[in-house]
């Protein structure tokens, strides 16, 4: 028993010996005497350190998991803390928008612009490209309509998940679905333009808490998409 205690004593980390404090009495070079109170305190300290060592990997894993779902530091845009009212009064522009939102939105406009440009350069109407454009417009209108659900569902959102907000978000997808059922591409394009206009009205007028840069981005994107769809319909009427 004395050998086990002696081994624990001389192989105990410095932090543990420090915790034992005055309860450890050294007598000679190789003899160590423990008081009962000091032995109980040592057992508690050993349990405390063992729990800390077991919890440390879990803390590290949780930190890594949180970092996995977070953007890298150089992707985060550092903006000064301003109130919601002040952010609404500030003049918004495309320069204020985050780069991922700006670049992805501009890239999403490419399929709309590509179709009428190719038809105008070739001087030929391609019904396959026109149908692909209408289909892509239907998907985009459904996405813009569903964003209202994502905005209204969080607990701290200024928009409540009531009948008005959730039902209005379904209107653009219904228009998009109806556009795909129409056999006439021109009518389908007009239906998509109506769906995009309704989604823009919701985002700009009915949800004023959106950032200013987002509203500017939505207006520019909707104008480009609607103009591209109408240009395709116009080229069909001219080239056919």
Give a verbal description of the structure.
With 240 residues, this protein is mostly helical. The chain folds into two domains: 2-68, no CATH class; 84-239, no CATH class. Helix content is 71%, strand content 3%. It has eleven helices and two strands, in the order H-H-E-E-H-H-H-H-H-H-H-H-H. It has a two-stranded antiparallel ribbon. Helix 6 (110-122) runs antiparallel to helix 7 (127-152) and helix 10 packs antiparallel against helix 11 (212-239). The longest helix has 33 residues, at 36-68. It starts with a helix and ends with a helix.
Layout of strands and helices, then pairs:
Layout (H helix, E strand, L loop, with lengths): L1 H9 L3 H7 L3 E4 L3 E4 L1 H33 L15 H6 L9 H10 L1 H13 L4 H26 L10 H6 L2 H11 L3 H22 L5 H28 L1
Antiparallel strand pairs: 1-2
Helix pairs in contact: 6-7, 6-11, 7-9, 7-10, 7-11, 9-10, 10-11
């Amino acid at each position: 028993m004395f050998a086990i205690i002696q081994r624990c004593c001389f192989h105990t980390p410095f932090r543990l010996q420090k915790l034992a404090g005055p309860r450890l009495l050294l007598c000679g070079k190789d003899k160590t005497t423990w008081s009962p109170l000091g032995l109980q305190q040592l057992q508690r300290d050993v349990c405390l350190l063992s729990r800390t060592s077991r919890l440390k990997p879990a803390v590290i894993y949780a930190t890594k998991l949180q970092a996995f779902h977070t953007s890298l530091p150089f992707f985060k845009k550092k903006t000064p803390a301003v109130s919601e009212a002040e952010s609404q009064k500030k003049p918004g522009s495309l320069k204020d928008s985050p780069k991922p939102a700006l670049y992805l939105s501009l890239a999403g406009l490419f399929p709309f612009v590509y179709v009428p440009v190719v038809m105008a350069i070739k001087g030929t109407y391609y019904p396959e490209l026109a149908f692909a454009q209408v289909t892509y417009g239907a998907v985009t209108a459904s996405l813009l309509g569903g964003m209202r659900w994502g905005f209204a569902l969080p607990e701290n959102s200024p928009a409540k998940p009531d009948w008005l907000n959730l039902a209005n978000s379904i209107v653009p997808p219904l228009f998009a679905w109806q556009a795909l059922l129409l056999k006439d591409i021109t009518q389908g394009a007009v239906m998509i333009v109506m769906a995009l206009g309704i989604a823009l009205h919701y985002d700009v007028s009915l949800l004023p808490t959106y950032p200013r840069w987002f509203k500017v981005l939505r207006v520019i994107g909707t104008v480009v998409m609607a103009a591209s769809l109408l240009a395709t319909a116009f080229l069909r009427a001219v080239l056919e």
